[in-house]
DNA sequence: TCCTATGTGTAGAATGCCGATATGAAGCTC
DNA sequence: GAGCTTCATATCGGCATTCTACACATAGGA
């Protein structure tokens, strides 16, 4: 499956995996890979720019730490991020209903 | 809803509305608008380049005609187009399951 | 006469995902 | 101790695709 397909929906996915609690970039990638049964394998060149974009939009905030001698940047949802996630869920529902309806895959 | 959201899925929608029978560009726009309850209102600058792309890929073929004094270019699915549509439906199912699953909107 | 609907089309800008590449530490195997 | 894999962050250029804005043209109703 062409992963370019998720263009425009990546932010929603990232916000969703951050909902239960903070994660760092690499963990976000593996969480998404696990949750999708291996199908969704985001390259780092996709996730890190996305996180910077989300941070600029103030949907997430980040903190540096050192774990096992490795530098980690951990991201956390802000209040605005939670609102954005709710809105993204609504958008997704509307979008998937429309596409599913037109394609006849309901 | 940002229509940019459908990036990567437009081809599937166009192929789907062409499935029952040939249509011209303008009719494709209004069909999609009707079927989406008005939400999907594609600009001509989106649909015409998309149709040329689909024709280059040989998923559709086109024929000119004159109806009511106006020139019309009517597009029809090819055999390859029907196969592509089937494949797009599979892609959509996989994609929407994954996104719906991660977002928790099932 | 003008506006709206019908109908096709292009050019340029913006968006944003991806591939390639770079850096570096930890830990394991041979 | 050399080399490999995993963990971890990051940038840059390329590229495909959608959107905005424009241009052109006919038919028909107000």
UniProtKB/TrEMBL annotation, chains A, B:
Coiled coil regions in record: none
InterPro entries per record: Metal_resp_DNA-bind_regulator, Tscrpt_reg_PadR_N, WH-like_DNA-bd_sf, WH_DNA-bd_sf
Domain Transcription regulator PadR N-terminal: 14-86
Annotated Gene3D superfamilies: Winged helix-like DNA-binding domain superfamily/Winged helix DNA-binding domain
A Pfam entry, by short name: PadR
Signal peptide: none
UniProt-listed PANTHER family: PADR-FAMILY TRANSCRIPTIONAL REGULATOR, TRANSCRIPTIONAL REGULATOR RV3488
Protein name (record): PadR family transcriptional regulator
Organism for this UniProt entry: Sphaerisporangium rufum
Taxonomic placement: Bacteria, Bacillati, Actinomycetota, Actinomycetes, Streptosporangiales
């Amino acid at each position: 499956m062409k992963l370019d397909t998720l263009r425009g929906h990546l932010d929603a996915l990232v916000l969703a995996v951050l909902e239960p609690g903070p994660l760092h970039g690499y963990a976000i990638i593996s969480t998404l890979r696990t949750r999708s049964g291996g199908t969704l394998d985001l390259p780092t060149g996709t996730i890190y720019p996305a996180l910077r974009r989300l941070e600029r939009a103030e949907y997430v905030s980040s903190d540096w730490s050192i774990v096992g001698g490795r530098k980690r940047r951990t991201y956390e949802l802000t209040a605005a991020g939670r609102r954005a996630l709710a809105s993204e869920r609504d958008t997704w529902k509307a979008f998937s209903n429309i596409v599913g309806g037109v394609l006849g895959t309901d």
